[in-house]
Amino acid sequence: MLTKQEIIDSLRGGLIVSAQAYPGEPMRDPRTMAQVAASAVRGGAAAVRIQGISDIQATRSAVETPIIGLWKDGSSGVVITPTFQHAHAVASAGAHVVALDGTRRPRPDGLSLAQTVARLHEETNALVMADCGNLEDARSAAAAGADFIGTTLAGYSGERLPTTGPDLELVREIREAALGPMLVAEGRIHSPADAAATMAAGAEAVVVGTAITHPSTITSWFVDACQPD
């Protein structure tokens, strides 16, 4: 079993691949997601990011690399692992790291982020990744005890405009703030050049999802490119 420090060390400088499919899509199946995750690991992914209890369980049997797990529930506001019960279930399903909404918005169960993180650390062996939307979120998440700070919600939580590609400015701001937790860049990283740019901006690891594991979106990019001007 990997120790917490070994998990952190294994992610530093690495690529994390997010393997998720949306409800109603042909790939929306735990076995399929586990196979996609295993393929990413075969290509060199340091870890995988997986949504949903069944998908986490299936992937835990398919890969030996760390799993960053989450549970999306709801359609607006705090959706990513919104309550402690969601977070505990993600850890119990086999996730080495629980990813949750790390913004300063009220959580549905009334617990603060700090209370949620503390209980997870006390009651499970999981590390915690806080998905943040801006620098103040990152400061708050670091103070709450999160082990990883992600830029996942930059442009989605209502406090920063979405950027065309990765939010490099936010990566630089968080890096310069030297908050302590590992900085993980995520969101709109669509090419190897984007991934390299986020690392150059100060990220310690990079999450790529759509550009690697979402065939329908990738196909649409090529379809659009083939259309006459």
Automatic annotation (TrEMBL):
Superkingdom in the source lineage: Bacteria
Family the UniProt entry places it in: Belongs to the NanE family.
One Pfam family of this chain: NanE
GO cellular component, one term: cytosol
Gene3D superfamilies: Aldolase class I (3.20.20.70)
Listed GO biological process terms: carbohydrate metabolic process; N-acetylmannosamine catabolic process; N-acetylneuraminate catabolic process
UniProt xrefs under HAMAP family: ManNAc6P_epimer
Lineage of the organism: Bacteria, Bacillati, Actinomycetota, Actinomycetes, Micrococcales
Pathway info: Amino-sugar metabolism; N-acetylneuraminate degradation; D-fructose 6-phosphate from N-acetylneuraminate: step 3/5
InterPro entries: Aldolase_TIM, NanE, RibuloseP-bd_barrel
Role played: Converts N-acetylmannosamine-6-phosphate (ManNAc-6-P) to N-acetylglucosamine-6-phosphate (GlcNAc-6-P).
Assigned EC number: 5.1.3.9
Record key words, sorted: Carbohydrate metabolism, Isomerase
Protein name as catalogued: Putative N-acetylmannosamine-6-phosphate 2-epimerase
EC supergroup of this enzyme: isomerase
Gene Ontology terms for molecular function: N-acylglucosamine-6-phosphate 2-epimerase activity
Catalytic activity entry: an N-acyl-D-glucosamine 6-phosphate = an N-acyl-D-mannosamine 6-phosphate
